Amino acid sequence: MTDKSATGRRSRRKGAAAENELAKILTAQGYEARRGYQTDGRLVADVVGLPGIHIECKRVEKLNLYAALQQADRDAKHDELPAVFHRRNREVWQVTMTLDYWLELYEKANR
Question: How many CB atoms within 10 Å of residue 95?
Answer without folding.
Answer: 12
